C-alpha cells in the first residue's frame, strides 16, 4: 500500500505541482501520475455536475505534415479522414494487418497538409515508430511533438464557462470534436479542442510544455473554475468517468489481440474508403461470419464488484469470458463492467455471473454507454 | 494523525481495542487513506471463527480490494451493520468505525501486536518519510 517516489517513471511538466497539491501518485503506463487529489468520488461528481481539471500531458502527439499527409493518414487510420474539414477531429484507431489495435487515436485535420494524431501515453514510442515506418512511402513527414505540449482537459457542464474566462475564442462556435486556435491565458495560437474522455462536454487545450507556463495555466484554470467548485481530477476519476461512458482503454477493451468488430467500434471503421492497414483482414472476418466474441456492458445484480480480469461464467460455473474493466460507478451508483462474451451470448438482458474472488455474483447484460449526458435544452 | 494509545495494531493495518475478553477490530486511518473512497465491506457473520493472521473479509474502495487480516483468534460476536449501508464511515473516522467484535480464544495473542508508537514508526518506514 506504500507509494514511494520512483526514479525511473516519466513525469509531465506538472508533476511537481501535483505533488505540491498533495495528490496521491500512481504508475500509469510508466508515468508518475496523480490518481486522486481530494477523493475519487468527489472528483468524478465534480465532472458530472460542474467542472474538473485533468493533466493529460502524458498522452502523445504525432504531427503528419506534407502534401501526402491525407493519404498517409488514410493508410494507417481506420476512419475516413477525407471526410474531415479543417478544424474537425474524429475518433479512430490504427490497426495491425490482422485488424487488431495498435492504439485508439483522435485525428485532427489542421489543414490539407497537416494532421495531428493524439495517442495514448503507454504506447507513445510504439505508435510513433508504427506511424513513421508506415508513412515512409507518402510525401509527408512524421514528427513526435508529444513533449512540446502540456495538455489539459477541462471537463463538465461548466467547462465552457470556465474556459471562457481564459480566452476570447468563441467557444460556442466550437461543436463537439471540432477545434480552433486562439489566445488562451495570454498564449497565442493555442489549440482548443472540444474533445475529452469523460462523456461530458469539455475541452482539451494544448499549451507550451515548460514548467512555468504549465503551472501558470493550471493555476489560472483552477482560479477560473473556483466559482463553479472546480476540482483537480486524477486518473482514478478519469477511469470511472470513461467507464460510465463505455469508452475503451488500451490493453483492456482494445489491444493487439482484439479486432474492431469484437470491440464494437465498427461505427468508426470505413472499409468503403479503400484499402488501409487491416482492411483486408476485417473484410475476411466479415465474410466468414463476423466476430466470435463481443464486448458487452454488465450491471451487477447482487452485492459484489466486478473488477478487471474477473471471469464471467455461465450458470454451470464454466468460464466464458472476462471483465476488461470493472468498477463501482460513482454517478450511476451501480457496479458496472465491460466484458467479452461469446457472440451468441452477448445479448442485452441476458444474465451471466461474474466470479468475484471465487464467488459467482449475478450480472445483467445492459446496453452501452451506461451513462449519456443530458441533452442541452436551449 | 494520532493513533489511539489503547489500541493495538498489525502490519496489515488493522487495529484492535481489547476490553475484557472481547476485541473490537477495524482498519487504521493509514489504511483508509491508502484505499480511497470505501464502497463495500465484506465482513463475516456472527458466530464465524477467525484466526490470527488469516483473512476474515475484505474492504473495497472504488479502485481497489484489500483483504482484512484478523489480529486475533476467536469467534465473531458482533458485526457493524452500519457499514453495509454507509461504508464511507470508515473514511470519515477509521478508528471509530469498527468492523467486527471478537471473543478472544487466546488473550495472550494481543501482547505480540504493535503498540501505537511501533505502528507509527512502521508506517513512517513504509512511506519512506
Descriptors for this entry?
heterodimer; A: 378 residues; Elongation Factor Tu (Ef-tu), domain 3; six-stranded mixed beta sheet; B: 129 residues; alpha+beta; OB fold (Dihydrolipoamide Acetyltransferase, E2P); globular
Q: What does this molecule look like?
A:
- The complex is a heterodimer of chains A (378) and B (129).
- Chain A has 378 residues and is an alpha+beta fold.
- Chain A has a domain at 292-366: Aminomethyltransferase beta-barrel domains (Elongation Factor Tu (Ef-tu), domain 3, Beta Barrel), CATH 2.40.30.110.
- Chain A has eight helices and 19 strands.
- In chain A, the strands form four sheets. A six-stranded mixed sheet of chain A has the order 10-11-12-9-3-13. Chain A has a six-stranded antiparallel β-barrel with strand order 14-17-16-15-18-19. Chain A has a five-stranded antiparallel sheet with strand order 5-6-7-4-8, covered by helices on one side.
- The mean pLDDT of chain A is 96.
- In chain B, the strands form two sheets. A six-stranded antiparallel sheet of chain B has the order 1-2-3-9-8-5.
- Chain B is an alpha+beta fold and 129 residues long.
- In chain B, a hairpin with a 2-residue loop joins β2 and β3 (22-27).
- Chain B has helices at residues 29-35, 82-85, 89-92, 116-126, and strands at 8-9, 14-19, 22-27, 38-42, 49-50, 55-61, 65-69, 74-79, 100-104.
- Chain B has four helices and nine strands.
- Chain B has a single domain (8-120), classed as OB fold (Dihydrolipoamide Acetyltransferase, E2P).
- The interface between A and B is medium-sized, with 21 and 19 residues.
- Over the alpha carbons, how many angstroms does the gyration radius of chain A reach? 21 Å
Q: Quickly give the structural class of chain A.
A: alpha+beta
What is the total domain count of chain B? Answer: 1
- Overall average pLDDT of chain B: 95
Proportion of strand residues of chain B = 25-35%
Shape category of chain B: globular
How would a textbook summarize the main sheet of chain B? Answer: 6 strands, antiparallel
**Uncertain segments of chain A:** none
Question: pLDDT average of chain A, as an integer?
Answer: 96
| Quaternary structure of the protein | heterodimer
Strand portion of chain A: 25-35%
CATH level-two architecture of the domain at 292-366 in chain A: Beta Barrel
CATH topology of chain B: OB fold (Dihydrolipoamide Acetyltransferase, E2P)
Q: Secondary-structure element order of chain B, as H and E?
A: EEEHEEEEEHHEH
- Spatial order of the strands forming the largest sheet of chain B: 1-2-3-9-8-5
- How far apart the termini of chain A lie comes to 48 Å
- Span from first to last CA of chain B? 15 Å
What structural class do you assign from the helix and strand content of chain B?
Answer: alpha+beta
**Overall CATH class of chain B:** Mainly Beta
